[in-house]
Each structure stands twice: as C-alpha cells, then as structure tokens.
Amino acid sequence: METINPSFEKELAQLKERLEEAEDVRRAITRGEVDAFVVGPGANARVLLLANAYQRYRQLVERMHQGAITATPGGQMLFANQRFADLVGVPLAQLYTAPLESYVAVGDRAQLSRFLMLSARDSHVEVDVQRSDGVAIPVRISIASFADGYATLLVTDLRPMQWPTLAVDALDSIRNSLDRLNRDLPPDTRAQESLRSISEQLNGLARMIDEMLDVEQPKAAE
Amino acid sequence: MSTVEGADTPKWNLRLYTAGQSPKSLAALANLKRVCEEHLAGRYSIEVVDLLKNPRLAKDDQIVAIPTLVRKLPQPLRRIVGDLSDTERTLVGLQLKERK
Lengths: 222, 100
What we know:
The complex is a heterodimer of chains A (about 220) and B (about 100).
Chain A: H1 6-30, E1 36-39, E2 46-49, H2 55-63, E3 67-71, E4 77-80, H3 82-88, H4 109-117, E5 124-130, E6 136-147, E7 150-157, H5 159-184, H6 190-216
Chain B: E1 2-5, E2 12-18, H1 23-39, E3 44-50, E4 65-66, E5 68-73, E6 78-81, H2 87-93
Parallel strand pairs in B: 2-3
Antiparallel strand pairs in B: 1-3, 2-5, 5-6
C-alpha cells in the first residue's frame, strides 16, 4: 500500500477546504442568496451592490417629497426623481443629462455653479428654480452625499416654510383695514359688534400661526 | 459595527458581514438571530460589520460575497456565504449539526 507524503496530505486538505469555500460562494450566488460583492484588493476594496439591493431606496427616493438629483461637478444631471421633475414642470426624461443650471433663475446660476464646484465644502445653497411656465420657486439645494466626483443633491421647496410669514402679513393687513373701518363706523352699532367678532377670530388665527411657527422652528435651547 | 449580546460571557463569537441594509443582509441578520436564539440561547454574540461603511474590513476574513457569516469562536474559523435562509445548511456550517 502506498504511503502519502504528510505535506502532500496537508496541501490536499487545504485545497479541499478552498474548493468547498469556492463551491459555497457559487451555490449562494446561483441560489440568489447574496446581493453584494467585494471587489478590488485590500485598501482599495469596494462593495458592489446588485441592482435589486437598491430597490428599496430607489422606491423611497422616487416617492419622497423632496427633489433628488445626482449631478456632475459641471452641473449635468445624471439622475433626477419625479418630485424634481414636478417642481420644474418638465417630463422626467427631459432632465437626464440636462444642465441643472438651465432650470435655475439666471441671476442664481453663478451661485449654483460655485456651490457645485465646492460642494464638498458648502452644505447648501438657496436659489430660485425656474418652472417651464416662468414661475420662480425658492428652493434650498443641499448635499446628501458626494462620491466619485458626483454630488447627490436634495432640493427642498421653500414655499411652505414661507406660508406662515405670508399669512401673518395678510392678517396684519386685515387688522389694519378693520381698525380703519372701526374708526369710521358710528359707535354702538351692530356693525361694530360684527367687527369685534371678526377681530377675535383673527386673533385666534394669529395664535394658531404662532403655534405652527413654534413647532416648525424649535427654539435653540431645546 | 454593532454587537448584539446574547449572554454575559458568550462562548460563540459570530461576525456577520453585511452591505448596509440590503435585503439579503437584513434577511441574514434575522435568520442568524433566529438560529442563535433556538440553538445557542445565552451563549453567543453577533458582531455586524457593514462593509458599505468600511470595505477594507473585508480583507480580515477574505470576504468576497455579502452577506457572509464568520464563526470566529469556537475555532476553527468557519464561513457561511448567503442569507442563511437554509437553516439546515446554516446549522451544518456552524457545526451545530452533523452533515448528512
């Protein structure tokens, strides 16, 4: 009976173990049990995700209420979500590879350009986007991530944040008109009674708006 | 990196390599927790290593596909690639059950 060299036997065991590991990887891949791979050596290792691994986040980005864009440092859009397309009022397909600045008000374009070039340094910029129908919408563009030279940007419509201030201004204007009316009316009339009632309702509205502002802008101390 | 403690002095030291919250990574963690609770209750610790955050850590255990579970202790080191949905295979891989 032939004897097997111990070192050969050890090498054989190691090879068998490596083969089993390779077979385990192959089996996991063919059964769809993995959704990412590590590529590249040591310090340069990167993780590549399979397309289906992104699905959950893709749905989230597609449905969220903020605009999302991936742009080159030169400002060319490589990706945009439906919300951003709605914001600028053009079909989504029209946005891919289009320059982002073409949807920004002319006066804000230089600011946007500086922001994109220095996006790793600055966290956000406030500009007006120009809708296809000519309406300017104030937005905040902020950096969500910056990788491989591409910036992923979030675009927040600032109009809802301005609404309480606009409402307060409108209430003040109505109050002034009521005061003038009150002065012009003869005393002790039913009309003055109605004016007092309207004033009380306006004060109630003003308090509600103040509370809304308190909720949206928590005090620095909190 | 996060650790889920199963006991004060865990005898089984398991490391799960994940890719963020990818579906297979989440499935692997859920399956691993279930298997550990059923077979190693109070005797294990799970360390989750997110390779999306730090891909260089893949080198430590020669990880090529994600998710991968590595049994660090008890020795010898064992690797199981995949989402651990095949409980039988997971138990055999962890040497909690004899191969048929």
